[in-house]
Amino acid sequence: MRELWSKLAGSIKRRLRKNYHIYKGVLLPPRDSRYLREAYRSDKLFYESTVMEGIKFTQRLGVTDKTRILEIGCTTGRSFIGLVQKVPDIYYIGIDINQWNIDWCKKYLAKENPNYNFHYFDLKHVMYNPNGKIEMNENFRFPYETGYFDLVYATGVIPNYIDSEVLILLKDFNRMLKIGGRLFLTSFVEEDVPDMEENPENYLMTFTYPRQIVRYEKNFFEKLISEQGFRIDSFEHRTEIDFQSAYYLTKIS
């Protein structure tokens, strides 16, 4: 009986506890739902990372209140939180393959603003969503109009996909963007390594999941980019989370 009451009390406590945190007047997600870095359990460090995202959107990617943005892999809104601190009146869609992430963002970040949209996307992935219904194949498409967006933003997405899948993603990023639209993505890219390697030995971390990292040779990866109609505006080696490299791209065809 005591064990039953203990379980019941624990369940009630979890339901009643606050499902967000406030830091410097900004609403942040629960500490155990801040992906990408263990250090982000610190409100201060997580908040500072959102500020840097906002600077990247406005100063590096030229975002204004006229920009239509699609973020692939929005998780619990780290980039979005930084963005709206800089440009509150923005048109934004964030998608993720984790239903809980999307439910949280809808409840706490959308705030009934019709320009803030969060969509669940049940894409199958061997590591993150093995039972997903949407397959990555030659018929794959995101559910958005052709030429609709000014910016597609994809932090931490490409690092979990092999080259044939990256080509599919890049092709559809291109389709959804206007001519002259921007694409920001990150990848694990190095020189003088195999063209593509899954979970390369002795590289950055210990791997516990399939496709935890897919690393590319720089010239090989940049050929994939250019073949899909993008110009490389800027490359920054190991400047992003977990030593990912950053690519700032423009759609030219």
Instruction: Give the topology string: H per helix, E per strand.
Output: HEEHEHEHEEHEEEHEE
Using the CA coordinates, give the radius of gyration: 19 Å
Give the oligomeric state of the chains in this entry, treating copies of one chain as homo and distinct chains as hetero.
single chain
Q: Please give the domain count.
A: 1
CATH superfamily: Vaccinia Virus protein VP39
At CATH level 2, the architecture is 3-Layer(aba) Sandwich
The rounded distance between the terminal residues' Cα atoms is: 68 Å
Shape: globular
What kind of sheet is the major sheet? 9 strands, mixed
Instruction: Note the total helix count.
Output: 6
Quick summary:
The protein has 253 residues and is an alpha/beta fold.
Overview of this protein structure:
It is a single chain. Mean pLDDT is 92; it is low at 4-16. 31% of the residues lie in helices and 25% in strands. Helix 2 packs across helix 3 (78-86). Strands 3, 4, 5, 6, 7, 8, 9, 10 and 11 form a nine-stranded mixed β-sheet that branches. It has a two-stranded antiparallel sheet with strand order 1-2. It contains six helices and eleven strands. The protein is globular. Helix 4 links the parallel strand 4 and strand 5. It starts with a helix and ends with a strand. It has one domain: Vaccinia Virus protein VP39 (Rossmann fold, 3-Layer(aba) Sandwich). The chain has 253 residues and is α/β, with parallel strands linked by helices. It has helices spanning 2-16, 43-60, 78-86, 99-110, 163-176, 218-227; strands spanning 21-23, 26-28, 68-72, 91-96, 116-120, 149-154, 177-190, 196-198, 214-217, 230-236, 245-251.
